[in-house]
UniProtKB/TrEMBL annotation:
It holds the Pfam family zf-HC2. Signal peptide: none annotated. The chain crosses the membrane at residues 84-106, 118-136, 157-180, 186-206, 213-233, 239-255. InterPro entries: Anti_sigma_zinc_sf (IPR041916), Znf_put (IPR027383). The keyword Transcription regulation applies. The keyword tRNA processing does not apply. This is Zf-HC2 domain-containing protein. Keywords: Membrane, Transcription, Transcription regulation, Transmembrane, Transmembrane helix. Residues 14-40 form the Putative zinc-finger domain. It comes from the Bacteria.
Amino acid sequence: MSVEHPSDRLVDGYARGDTDLPADELWAVEAHLERCADCRGRLAGAAADVPAVTALLTAVRDGLEPALDRSTPAPRRRRRPTAWATPVMGPWLAMVIGVSVVAVLLDRTAGWTRGAPPVLLLAPALPLAGVAAAWSRGLDPAFELTAVTPRAGLSLLLRRTLTVLAVVLPVHLVAGLLTGVALAQWLLPSLALTATALALGSVIGVGRATAALGALWTAAVLAPAAALGRLFLLQPEHLPLWALTLAAATVVTLARRRAYTTPKSLR
C-alpha cells in the first residue's frame, strides 16, 4: 500500500512554524510524522536551516549539559516484597498469632467452650483476617497505586494470600500439636474458608467476603460451641464436605480470574 508523504513545502512550513498553514494540513502533517521515520528525518533537516529553531535547541542543550554532568546515578534500591506482603499485614498477622496463643491458653485453663477445643474453633477462620488485610482498600494506604499496576489482580492476591498462610498455618500446626487437635480437622476447613473468601471476593469484594464468612463462622460454629458444647461442621465425618468446598472454590476462583481487576473485587 502506497503512503502519501507531505510535500517539502508543508515540511518546511511546519519546521518554521508558519501560521499560514491550514489547520487540516497541519493536523495531517503531525499525524504523518508520528508514524513515518523518514519524514521525521526530513523535518530535522529542515529545522536545522531555521535560525530560531537552532538557537532554541542550542540554548536548551547548553542549559542541560552542566546539570547532566553533575548528576550521579541513583543508588539501587532493594526491591520490597510488595507483591507478597504490605506493611499493614504485619499488625494483623501479629494479632492472628496472638489469638492463636490465647486459644492454646484457653484450652489449658478455661472451659467456656464446654469441651470444644478453642484452637479447633478459631484456627480455620483466623486466616480470613490476614486475607482481608492483604487485599483491602481501607487498610492499605498504597492500595490505589497497587491496584492499577500490571501485576494487580488474582496473581497479586494469591501471592499475598500465600504469605498469610505461610505465617499462620505453622503457628496453628504448633497449637494443634500442643492441644491434641488433629491436623486435617482444622487444616481443611481453614483452606476451604480461605479459598471461598477468594471465590466470593470476585463477586462482592474480598473485604466483604471475609467479613461475611467470619460472621457466618461465628453464627454456625463458635456460638453453638459456646452455648451447647457441640461441634457443628468440624466433626471428622464433615472433612469430605470441606474438601469438596475447597475444590469448588478453587475452580470458581480460577474461572473468574479476570474479575479481580474490576471495582467489585476491590471492595
